[in-house]
Amino acid sequence: MDLADIARRFGTPAYVVDEDAVRARCRDYLAALPSVTVAYAGKAFLTQAMASWVAEEGLSLDVCSGGELTLARSVGFPESRIIFHGNAKTPAELRDAVGVGRVVIDNVAEIHRLAALVPVGLRQDVYLRVTPGIEAGGHAAIRTGSEGQKFGIPLTELSDAVGRVLSQPELRLAGLHCHIGSQITSVAPFEEAAKVMVDQLAMVRERFATTVPELDLGGGHGVAYLDDEHGLDLGHFGTAVPKVVAERCRRLRVPEPRLVVEPGRAVVAAAGVTLYRVISVKRQGGRTFVAVDGGMSDNPRPALYGARYSVAVPGRSGEPVTIVGRHCEAGDVIAENVAAGDARPGDLVVVRVTGAYHHAMGSSYNLTCRPPVVAVRGGTARLIVRREEPADLMRRDVGR
Ligand code: LLP
């Protein structure tokens, strides 16, 4: 697809997502992990179209809010393939979640809260989310597996939590869960986490004479944002992690659990680009600033995580410039050292690998309108999320 055409037709800024690439990536996952349940983590990017693609490709779906659950249900995503997460599920969310495939319990108090909501005669499948004590991931803000952060049940309290779940006739302990972090590019931390988790399956079997049928190792599979980076090797993950689990299960004499993974970023990041237009070019303080018509409202990741991107200004080259956004903050920088010294207002700017945690984390900061999402498939482009309009921004402001 000609991105310049898309920019002309749909305007800028715009998110573009390659449906064929997303679907191909879903199939890669199923092929690399044939006996593993792959649940796409909707927090990375969720629209009705995306939920439908994931459903059609046969993946499960991890949702982490009532909003994501409502969206999934709006396209008829099969309930049995939905995993519901959250460390602070509201009473309304918990009530709404009853009936999905798996509810992931984050803390001990939630066991009783959930059990009280399950209708008589039904049994809700649950996972217990465990903090396995493993540090991994791209940035401190997205490391979630160690103690001293808010998620999950510490290993020392797991036995108590298991006992409580088993004593609730409304609940069935379907599995243990952990998520050690995000943007992890090597397989080793997942192997480590898998070992710790199998040890816990053995603990449960020993103390409660119960077999836990599933083990969810969460998401966090890293991707390459820049040309000289590499993402998690899916083929390696797909052979190494199930093998580690199988071997340890054999050694500890526990039946092998069905494995589950929850990749978000790795399914969709590389399938997306963001299109902007240059608004102004200025040289000051020895630097050239190329300012575009979007910024930290559609991509907060540089400001939040120091994220770096590969940016192209097609047809331009030369001295390195700094691509900045339009927002009222000096930290609103999209990328440094982009070879585009001859950029001019009106030029197209393409930022790669923006399919995950961009649309999903967008805001209307400075009362700017959120970009549309354009999907391309088989050489044609269509709108799947329309551009926000000033009227949308005003709608909830009820005046004085
Ligand atoms: N499962 C659980 C329980 C999670 O908390 C997450 C992400 C995932 C799966 C999916 O992780 P992924 O495969 O996408 O790494 N906003 C940050 C990333 C936050 C990830 C939060 N949890 C970013 O833009 O880098």
UniProtKB/TrEMBL annotation:
Its EC number is 4.1.1.20. The keyword Cytoplasm does not apply. Coiled coil: none annotated. Substrate binds at R265, R301, Y305, E329, Y357. GO terms for biological process: lysine biosynthetic process via diaminopimelate. The active site is at C328. Keywords: Amino-acid biosynthesis, Decarboxylase, Lyase, Lysine biosynthesis, Pyridoxal phosphate. The modification N6-(pyridoxal phosphate)lysine is found at K43. It catalyses: meso-2,6-diaminopimelate + H(+) = L-lysine + CO2. Gene3D superfamilies: Alanine racemase, Lyase, Ornithine Decarboxylase, Chain A, domain 1. Residues 20-269 form the Orn/DAP/Arg decarboxylase 2 N-terminal domain. Pyridoxal 5'-phosphate binds at G220, E262, P263, G264, R265, Y357. It is an enzyme of class 4 (lyase). GO terms for molecular function: diaminopimelate decarboxylase activity; pyridoxal phosphate binding. Its cofactor is pyridoxal 5'-phosphate. Pathway: Amino-acid biosynthesis; L-lysine biosynthesis via DAP pathway; L-lysine from DL-2,6-diaminopimelate: step 1/1. Pfam families: Orn_Arg_deC_N. Homodimer. PANTHER family: DIAMINOPIMELATE DECARBOXYLASE, GROUP IV DECARBOXYLASE. Specifically catalyzes the decarboxylation of meso-diaminopimelate (meso-DAP) to L-lysine. Belongs to the Orn/Lys/Arg decarboxylase class-II family. LysA subfamily. This is Diaminopimelate decarboxylase. It comes from Herbidospora galbida.
